[in-house]
Amino acid sequence: MGRHSLAKKRRKSPVVLASVLGPAAVFFAVGSDMQPSKDAVKSASVDEVAPWDVEIVAAAPMNSFPAPIVGQVSLSSGPDTVIAASRYRTVDRTLPVGLAPERGLQVKTILASRAITAAFPEIQSIGGTRPDALRWHPNGLALDVMIPNAGTAEGIALGNEIVDYVLRNASRFGMQDAIWRGAYYTPNGAQRGGGYGHYDHVHITTTGGGYPTGNENYYR
User: Signal peptide location in the record (predicted)?
Assistant: First the structure.
C-alpha cells in the first residue's frame, strides 16, 4: 500500500476526538471549580478569605438610668419604655441657708426665711430672733424682711410682692400674720385698721412648728 493509504488509517475523525476529549474537558473544568488547588489556597491572604456563616451585627447602645427628676418624672419599668438618658437631670430642691440668722428660730420660720431669700434676690437683710416686749421675735416665731428703698415705688412694689408670696404659701410657712405699711394680713387677707406701722420692712409671724433637731430638710 502507498503512503497515502497509511496516513488515512492513522487519522482520527474530528467527531470522534470531540466525543472523547469533550467530557474530559468538562470534568477537569468542573473539578477545578469544586476543589481549589493547594497553591491557590496558600496564595490567598487572611484578609482575602471571608469567614463562612458569620454575621457582624452592630451592638445596641446600653441604656443608663440616672436618677429621676424629683417630683416631675415617673419612670416605668416596662420593656417598651425607652427614654434617652440625656433627658434626665437631677434637681436639687434643697433650700440653702437664708439671710436670717437661724439660731433660735423655729422650723417654719426657718423655712420662710430660706424661701424668701431664694425667691427675692433683691433682699439683703432679714432679721430673726431678738429681744422684744412681745414674744414673737424672742421665741423664734417672727421675721423682719428689710425692704431696700422702702419709700420708693420700687420698694413698695417689692414689699407688696413679698406679702403676696407669703399669703400664697401661708399653709406651707405656717403663716400667722404679716404686717406691711400699716396693714395687717392673715391667711384670709388684709385686715385694715391702721396704726400697724412697718414701713421699712415686712414683718412675718409663723406658728413655729418647734425648734429644729438638726435633722430637718428644707425644700423649695
Answer: 1-28
Residues in the chain with pLDDT values less than 70: 1-88, 192-194
Q: How do 189-192 and 126-127 pair as beta strands? A: unpaired
DSSP 8-state class, residue 180:
E
Terminal CA-to-CA distance of the chain, rounded, Å?
129
Secondary structure of residue 59 in the 3-state scheme: coil
pLDDT of residue 135: 97
Note the pLDDT of residue 191: 79
Backbone dihedral region for residue 198 (phi beyond 0: left; psi -120 to 50: alpha; all else: beta): left
Of 119, 116, 110, the C-alpha closest to 209 is 110
Q: Considering all CA atoms of the chain, what is the largest pairwise distance in Å, rounded to the nearest integer?
A: 161
Give the C-alpha separation, 201 to 191, whole Å: 18
Residue 173 cell numbers, joined: 410657712
CA dihedral (180, 186, 189, 193) positive or negative: negative
Amino acid residing at 26: V
Angle between helices 153-168 and 107-119 (to 10 degrees): 130
